[in-house]
Design goal:
- It is a single chain.
- This protein is an alpha+beta fold.
- The chain folds into 2 domains: about 5-125, 4'-phosphopantetheinyl transferase domain (Ribosomal Protein L22, Chain A, Alpha-Beta Complex), CATH 3.90.470.20; about 135-180.
- Helices cover about 50% and strands about 20% of the residues.
- The protein is built from 8 helices and 5 strands.
- The chain has helices at about 15-20, 25-30, 35-40, 45-65, 90-100, 135-165, 170, 175-180, and strands at about 5-10, 75-80, 85-90, 105-110, 115-125.
- The strands form 2 sheets. It has a 3-stranded antiparallel beta sheet with strand order 1-5-4. A two-stranded antiparallel ribbon has the order 2-3.
- A hairpin with a 3-residue loop joins strand 4 (about 105-110) and strand 5 (about 115-125).
- Helix 1 packs across helix 4.
- The chain is elongated, with a radius of gyration of 35 Å.
């Protein structure tokens, strides 16, 4: 699968802890309010800040641009989707680079151990973006047609049951005479 780019970055959590102690304004200058709120709610905020820093670096590597040259440190941030998964948010220069390269999405994975935060980013273009599975669509259409056919058969069965419950002379009054003369009997034949 060809993608616009792949980026990976790692950061020792102890380095982030040192920066946080020495430069208290660093967090406000670099991270968005959303990111700070998320990180500060955790038991070990430095892990999450380090993961978000690594994510920024991985994303610009995937875009092939780095910071500088019109791409600022806050042009890449980490947000969360409605399922809670990390997502890259591009603004400013980073969004411009992505647009120029035809990047429609940046897939992001962040993780950490006790010591290291790591992030992987894949810049995806429309040409390589996964398409909905055509087989799944065909299976859904087939299942819908089976449901519709079953509904028709159920209705036919209901109508047939209703007709069977009626007396025969109600269905075809002139058939009773025909039925009594036309039906074969079990009497032995006298002709040979």
């Amino acid at each position: 699968m060809t993608a616009a780019g792949i980026g990976v970055d790692m950061l020792e959590i102890s380095r982030m802890e040192r920066v946080m102690r020495r430069r208290p304004n660093f967090l406000r200058r670099v991270f968005t309010e959303e990111e700070r709120a998320y990180c500060e709610r955790s038991a070990r905020p430095a892990e999450h800040y380090a993961a978000r820093w690594a994510a920024r670096e991985a994303v610009v590597k995937a875009l092939g641009c780095g910071f500088g040259g019109g791409v600022g440190i806050r042009d890449v941030s980490v947000t969360r989707d409605d399922r809670g998964s990390a997502r890259a948010r591009l603004t400013g220069g980073a969004a411009k680079v992505a647009l120029e390269k035809g990047v429609v999405e940046v897939a992001l994975s962040i993780s950490y151990t006790r010591d290291v935060a790591v992030a992987n980013a894949v810049a995806v273009t429309e040409a390589v973006k996964p398409k909905p599975d055509a087989r799944a669509d065909a299976a859904r259409a087939l299942a819908a047609s089976f449901r519709e056919a079953k509904s028709v058969l159920d209705e036919l069965e209901r109508v047939e049951d209703a007709q069977m419950a009626l007396p025969i002379d109600t269905l075809a009054p002139d058939m009773t005479a025909v039925a009594s003369t036309a039906l074969p009997t079990n009497r032995p034949s006298t002709e040979e």
